[in-house]
Amino acid sequence: MAGQFLVDEFMNGVAARNPGEKEFHQAVKEVAESVEPVLKKHPEYFKARVLDRIVEPERQIMFRVPWVDDRGEVQLNRGFRVEFNSAIGPYKGGLRFHPSVYLGIIKFLGFEQIFKNSLTGLPMGGGKGGSDFNPKGKSDNEVMRFCQSFMFELFRHIGPNTDVPAGDIGVGGREIGYMYGAYKKITNRFESVLTGKGINWGGSLARPEATGYGAVYFTEEMLKTRKDSFKGKTVVISGSGNVAQYAVQKATQLGGKVVTLSDSDGFIYDPSGITGDKWKFIMELKNVKRGRIKEYADKFKVEYHDGQRPWSIPCQIALPCATQNEIDINDAKKLVDNGCFAVAEGANMPSTPEAVEHFIANNVLFGPAKAANAGGVATSGLEMCQNHIGISWPFEEVDRQLHQIMVNIHKNSWDAAEKYGSKGNLVVGANIAGFVKVADSMLDQGVI
Ligand code: NDP
Ligand code: 2IT
């Protein structure tokens, strides 16, 4: 019927226009369901077809990335950059290097990024990129040659006021360094075109810590609504990369006991907590030696569960920090049955829709990714800000701003949920709060 928004009809259109991109459909459906009451209340969004336009990227770039391996053989990968929405600022979002990357993954991440960036309160549009390149098992020289080849095309699409990529899975300080070097060599410009840079060449203090710390700060805000805290809680964390590492550190500082970490091979269970020298071992293992999580179990004589995820371990708080759809309905049931009452998503879209539904139906405090892990991109925004004014803030200053941003995101999401009749549902709240600012900006800027 003309003038009426129907989620199912809308989703049929999205699926037909973007065939096979199941993660993208999943991300869009959640937002469409959340903003339905907003569209009903504001016919002007519907009339201007804001949602139809928001799910269509402004620009999608796909390119060939050839490179030569250490044996002298030519290798070939595919590169992506999806410039999704620039209504509130230059495109901003990470680059993911992982063999599972295809257009549907980059589009789900880019779509989520629009609302996440809006929630930070900083002027950043949404974008995402990456490649099906697998950095695992590659030498530093191979990674460097790949990054240089990747930037050989990407450089023409990005810029400090156009599009500012950063890291994500498989892209950390090493990769950002090689890409920044290549960009500078090609363009002869030293400018704020990537974030997550090294501290000696324009990076921000606290950016490495930001996503993990931010997810824990967000969890703290959720716990406060029940007059609770991390003190004395058992915490289960998945992943052992950038986000997981600093989530462990901050959760421990706040009095929690983190008992698990994982990688794509399995998980370790350390009932005495991943603290002190054991945490330092993880940092060295994952960031320098690039080894496997099993080595932690071998070294500290704790349980290793091959090929499994950590959700069967009893806990009060769970922080998924690895990848999408890593908590399915069975995992969610196990968590709830074992007494877990708070879940915050450090990773992007780690819970399936059925898992999210189960958490919410069981009164679990649930922090959706676009709110809970926004600390990373928020601090990227602070890095850009420091670059633009030519100054470097102390760690404490960046951390203070990060903390305040996470408090604000929690409050704004909470308030939006309440305003639209879903009190306490931060999925609905974050989607609405993120959406309204972008939608209003699109209305202001006309049909473009
Ligand atoms: P890293 O590459 O540093 O670490 C990723 C971790 O997740 C590794 O332990 C990796 O194990 C594991 N992992 C990756 N893919 C899979 C998989 N398919 N199955 C099981 N385990 C897997 O990435 P980050 O820590 O930066 O990113 C983690 C998550 O956080 C992602 O969802 C990312 O999008 C999200 N995120 C990251 C931000 C950032 O600032 N870095 C900001 C906001 C969100 P293995 O080494 O075996 O592959
Ligand atoms: O998913 C994310 O928000 C990130 N990978 C960080 C993006 C950024 O631009 O810092």
Could you name the key traits of this structure?
Rossmann fold, binds NADPH dihydro-nicotinamide-adenine-dinucleotide phosphate, binds (2Z)-2-iminopentanedioic acid, seven-stranded mixed β-sheet, 448 residues, alpha/beta, globular
Task: Tell me what you see in this structure.
By secondary structure, this protein is α/β, with parallel strands linked by helices. It has 3 domains: 7-54, no CATH class; 57-192, Rossmann fold (3-Layer(aba) Sandwich), CATH 3.40.50; 210-372, 3-Layer(aba) Sandwich (Rossmann fold), CATH 3.40.50.720. It has helices spanning 7-17, 22-41, 43-47, 50-54, 103-119, 140-154, 173-187, 207-224, 242-253, 276-289, 294-300, 329-337, 353-361, 369-372, 374-389, 395-419, 426-444; strands at residues 59-68, 74-85, 91-97, 125-131, 163-166, 234-237, 257-263, 266-269, 303-306, 317-319, 342-344, 365-367. The strands form 2 sheets. It has a 7-stranded mixed beta sheet, sandwiched between helices. The protein has a 5-stranded mixed beta sheet with strand order 1-2-4-3-5. Helix 12 (329-337) links the parallel strand 10 and strand 11 (342-344). Helix 1 (7-17) runs antiparallel to helix 2 (22-41) and helix 12 (329-337) runs parallel beside helix 13. The chain starts with 6 loop residues before the first helix and ends with a helix. 52% of the residues are buried. The structure holds NADPH dihydro-nicotinamide-adenine-dinucleotide phosphate (NDP) and (2Z)-2-iminopentanedioic acid. The site of NADPH dihydro-nicotinamide-adenine-dinucleotide phosphate has 23 residues, from helix 9.
